[in-house]
């Protein structure tokens, strides 16, 4: 039932293990130019750590720190000991680069295999990786985890839906790794091609890389006739495999033997109570080449209180609610794009895509939501369309407390982007 016995370690023993590993991680981090300086200034040594609660004594690490120390300032070992790096796109300024030793890659693959096992994937499954490879961690992270688990692995990459279908059929693919926005598009592609999803051997989809709502997950499961499991990862911690749903589909287990996780108030930096939403802060516990301490992810989530029915003792993160830096302020009201998605995707008339546009009218900031409408509801009767438009605007107003302009558009008329979906466009400076 479990890939690794550590998954069911009693809480006290798990915290003892975390404390030991935190001490070792600090000892390694002190070998880097960045942490030798910042930990020295904070007066932190391995000996000063007596329990996991002492993590609060460590200074935060931010994405700006990684950019400022680019390329080698965060490394704890000579460059000759590293065998791979991943990096952000870095279209403006320095990218963030993350380096891996062979030990780090082996640990990552094992965590990914554990993650996939927890949602029912086994040796003998065939996994088709429909995510991008390259500097993006998602593709290679899933790939090596799949091979470690013993699955036949098809590195299909992103896009080219006709080829994806052929590979799925030809090699009896049972598991797909796919980002949510492409899963929605892929289901529409199958519909237009007259392909019944039940005719495909797929039974599991691993979805992640983009924050998405429960409504999106349910649509993916309904349209593709499979079970879709949510996951969480970020390049700075490894990539995918930081937290993963089990078959209970009730929160993502954080692998706490490898990551020490905190939830903080993003404004004050103080811990919030269990069950409250805050910013996720993470510390590596097993990475040797480039461990990060108290890394501020800017992702918003919460710990789900209570124990999981699966028997695993590692705490569960709720799905990511958005990012602290994605918050929109319109007419003095704080709005998160995920609120809009949740509302739209609960309405059966709404299609698979939407776009939030911010614009200025006079001196006032305004918000417009372009919504794709399913073909069967996009009728010539203007009264029906206007009624639907008003209903969507009202539902959104009830959720976000601001009445947006709602523009109904035909299915598949909003341009799709390669990779992660772009949901918000700021036109205020145009």
What is the rounded distance between the termini?
A: 55 Å
CATH architecture of the largest domain: 3-Layer(aba) Sandwich
Total domains: 2
Major beta sheet summary: 9 strands, mixed
Mean pLDDT across the residues is: 93
Total beta-strand segments: 21
Function: Catalyzes the activation of phenylacetic acid (PA) to phenylacetyl-CoA (PA-CoA).
GO biological process, one term: phenylacetate catabolic process
Pfam family, one: AMP-binding_C_2
Enzyme class: ligase
Descriptive tags:
single chain; 430 residues; alpha/beta; 2 domains; 9-stranded mixed beta sheet; 4-stranded antiparallel beta sheet; 10 helices; 25% strand; ANL_N_sf; AMP-bd_C_sf; AMP-dep_synth/lig_dom; nucleotide-binding; EC 6.2.1.30
Q: Can you tell me about this structure?
A:
The chain has 430 residues and is α/β, with parallel strands linked by helices. The chain has 2 domains: 1-325, ANL, N-terminal domain (Rossmann fold), CATH 3.40.50; 327-426, ANL, C-terminal domain (GMP Synthetase, Chain A, domain 3). 30% of the residues lie in helices and 25% in strands. α4 (102-118) crosses α5 and α9 crosses α10 (382-400). The chain starts with 10 loop residues before the first helix and ends with a strand.
Task: Produce a short descriptive summary.
With 430 residues, this protein is α/β, with parallel strands linked by helices. It has helices spanning 11-29, 33-42, 63-68, 102-118, 137-149, 161-170, 180-192, 214-224, 337-345, 382-400; strands spanning 82-87, 97-101, 126-129, 152-154, 175-177, 204-207, 227-234, 239-245, 252-254, 259-264, 278-284, 295-301, 303-304, 316-317, 322-323, 328-330, 333-335, 350-361, 364-373, 405-410, 424-426.
């Amino acid at each position: 039932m479990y890939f690794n016995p550590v998954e069911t370690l009693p809480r006290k023993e798990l915290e003892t293990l975390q404390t030991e590993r935190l001490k070792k991680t600090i000892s390694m981090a002190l070998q880097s130019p960045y942490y030798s300086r910042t930990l020295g200034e904070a007066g932190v040594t391995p000996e000063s750590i007596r329990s996991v609660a002492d993590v609060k004594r460590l200074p935060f690490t931010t994405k700006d720190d990684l950019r400022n120390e680019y390329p080698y300032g965060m490394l704890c070992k000579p460059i000759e000991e590293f065998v791979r790096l991943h990096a952000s796109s870095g279209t403006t300024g320095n990218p963030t680069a993350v380096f891996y030793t062979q030990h780090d890659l082996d640990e990552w693959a094992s965590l990914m295999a554990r993650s996939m096992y927890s949602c029912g994937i086994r040796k003998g499954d065939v996994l088709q990786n429909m995510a991008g490879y390259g500097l993006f961690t998602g593709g290679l992270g899933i790939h090596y985890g799949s091979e470690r688990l013993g699955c036949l692995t098809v590195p299909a990459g992103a896009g080219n839906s006709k080829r994806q279908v052929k590979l799925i059929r030809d090699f009896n693919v049972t598991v797909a790794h796919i980002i949510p926005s492409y899963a929605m598009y892929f289901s529409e592609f199958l519909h237009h091609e007259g392909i019944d999803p039940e005719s495909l051997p797929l039974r599991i989809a691993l979805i992640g890389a983009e924050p998405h709502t429960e409504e999106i997950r349910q649509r993916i499961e309904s349209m593709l006739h499979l079970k879709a499991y949510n996951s969480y990862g970020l390049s700075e911690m490894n990539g995918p495999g930081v937290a993963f749903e089990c078959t209970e589909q009730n929160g993502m287990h954080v692998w706490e033997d490898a990551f020490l996780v905190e939830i903080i108030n993003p404004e004050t930096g103080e811990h919030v109570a269990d069950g409250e939403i805050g910013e996720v802060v993470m510390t590596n516990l097993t990475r040797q080449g480039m461990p990060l301490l108290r890394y501020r992810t800017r992702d918003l989530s919460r710990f789900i209180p209570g124990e999981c029915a699966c028997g695993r003792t590692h705490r569960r993160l709720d799905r990511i609610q958005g990012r602290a830096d994605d918050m929109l302020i319109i007419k003095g009201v704080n709005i998160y794009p995920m609120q809009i998605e949740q509302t739209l995707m609960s309405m059966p008339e709404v299609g698979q895509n939407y776009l939030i546009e911010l614009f200025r009218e006079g001196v006032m900031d305004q918000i417009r939501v372009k919504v794709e409408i399913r073909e069967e509801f996009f009728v010539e009767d203007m009264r029906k369309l206007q009624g639907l438009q008003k209903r969507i605007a009202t539902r959104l107003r009830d959720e976000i407390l601001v009445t947006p302009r709602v523009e109904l558009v035909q299915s598949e008329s909003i341009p799709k982007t390669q990779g992660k979906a772009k949901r918000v466009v700021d036109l205020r400076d145009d």
